User: Which sequence fits this backbone?
């Protein structure tokens, strides 16, 4: 698949055309190239970027057990009723060793298989080299360039990485559920400020009112640069309850930002973060290409582990290009 | 506080001596410097590294509600009975905007206040620039150099970041609890391969046997490079049940690695990952210092958001030093 990306400009242009036409196989190939951190993926993204910028990018995050995937699926169907096309990127915590994907995702894909207006793809969380957040952002841009009207990015919302990912959306939705135990407060503290909209899913369960009260209490403490008060919505995703209201709330926040001329400010702020992540990745890629192959890295790691070399000096020497031996 | 770190070598040497003597205020200052990503922190770490390498570094991870902190506290007390000194680094998911710390942590610190053999410090999860994993690893090395016999690193175990952090320990413990709902399987898939020891905490609850069976079932699928079969221990941390057995299991894994001459291999593999993270951070720091101040970053972000500049070309130009305008 990357071979098509290494071909001359004419081949690249054809490939870009296929992606822009929403060709499912071309999309899958492009995403694999991004996931594999292939150098050709950069060429492709450069060609696609001018065609992006039209999709509504919506980030959704919630702890395991919050019914996040079902909610995302329901929301996708809601947008389909409005004749919008949808791209879904699901970021799953998978093995750092095998990079294996999660089975449930295949089942989800099959459920949507008949509808060509929905494209769903899961991203495996890889090891150190690639960087999950930049790859996910690239996939969102790719789906945007492929003409999707709405791009839904879903993550498990506990780690910093996952928070970073959903922060790059135009609108960020935090999903909570009643009765997750006392320690859930910890999660809430971490995600409080990234939520533009709160959803209490499984709201037919006992404790929904309590969760709402807790959010309200924390809201009095939060300071937002855009002066928005995030609404709290109640859903039962498995029964499609509250989904049209959620779509309306998303639209409401978007209109609020536009009305206050804040949407561009949000995009600028998002690009600032994204640019930094892209730089981190590109700088390391270049270092690995030019000055530090895997064998040398192994040797250094061994010397450090055996305390024959100090890693802090080594890193400085590598960065300044003055490394000895 | 960083002023002492910018003083001449004699002052640095005094500071290093105070840290090596376990001076609590010196430790706190040093950790703040690391958290703030201060340039002087590198100088300090370089001076401290030769004194590190003696502590047992134990990583513990578990979802919110797993009783992780209580378990870590109990384990610390267990080691205190063996006259070992302890350093605890608790990584909490806090606000990306405020970097604020979690209240509960202060309460924990007070509980240990009378015992100078335990030093506890929480790390706030910061924004993009610093990088949480390298900072946490540096703090572990610092506590090691400060003469702690055991360094316990605890994280919320869902995100990739948190997984990366505990992977850098000599021994990694994954804490599960009965009855966390159907979606917990997702977490297990992500952390299965990093666990050297499984702990089922709150094991007096219904469902402990089921969790154990599930772990056993997944173990038949896992392939470990060290051929170790992670034991599954049951604890009730609030009542100190199963804690001596846990300490024994940790020791058992360590002895297993030593017996098979695998401990050094594990340390080399850890340093390889850590070195890459250190490089990512150092490369970006240098770029920000030399070629990209905050104002310029803002300008680029705006140009990209307005689609007047393509970020993929920009990043390449920045990395190769050929950026125009």
Assistant:
């Amino acid at each position: 698949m990357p071979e098509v990306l290494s071909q001359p400009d004419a081949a690249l242009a054809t490939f870009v055309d296929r992606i822009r036409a929403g060709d499912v196989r071309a999309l899958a190939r492009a995403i694999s190239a991004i996931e594999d951190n292939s150098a050709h993926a950069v060429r492709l993204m450069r060609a696609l970027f001018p065609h992006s910028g039209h999709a509504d990018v919506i980030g959704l995050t919630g702890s395991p057990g919050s019914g996040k995937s079902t909610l995302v699926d329901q929301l996708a169907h809601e947008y389909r009723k409005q004749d919008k096309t949808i791209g879904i990127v699901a970021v799953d915590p998978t093995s750092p060793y095998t990079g294996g994907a999660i089975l449930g995702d295949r089942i989800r894909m099959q459920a949507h298989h008949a509808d060509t207006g929905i494209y769903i793809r899961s991203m495996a969380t890889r090891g150190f080299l690639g960087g999950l957040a930049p790859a996910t952002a690239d996939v969102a841009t790719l789906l945007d360039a492929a003409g999707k009207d709405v791009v839904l990015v879903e993550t498990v919302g506990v780690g910093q990485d996952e928070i970073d990912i959903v922060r790059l959306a135009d609108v960020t939705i935090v999903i909570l559920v009643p009765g997750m135990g006392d320690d859930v407060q910890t999660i809430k503290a971490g995600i409080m400020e990234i939520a533009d909209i709160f959803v209490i899913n499984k709201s037919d369960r006992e404790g929904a009112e309590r969760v709402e009260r807790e959010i309200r209490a924390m809201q009095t403490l939060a300071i937002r640069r855009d002066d928005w008060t995030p609404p709290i919505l109640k859903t039962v995703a498995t029964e499609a309850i509250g989904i049209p209201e959620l779509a309306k709330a998303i639209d409401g926040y978007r209109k609020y930002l536009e009305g206050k001329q804040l949407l561009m400010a949000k995009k600028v702020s998002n690009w600032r973060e994204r640019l930094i992540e892209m730089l981190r990745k590109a700088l390391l890629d270049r270092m690995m290409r030019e000055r530090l192959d895997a064998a040398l890295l192994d040797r250094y790691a061994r010397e450090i582990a055996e305390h024959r070399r100090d890693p802090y000096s080594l890193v400085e020497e590598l960065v300044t290009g003055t490394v000895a031996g």
Notes: The longest helix of chain A spans residues 263-290. The first strand of chain A starts at residue 56 and ends at 62.
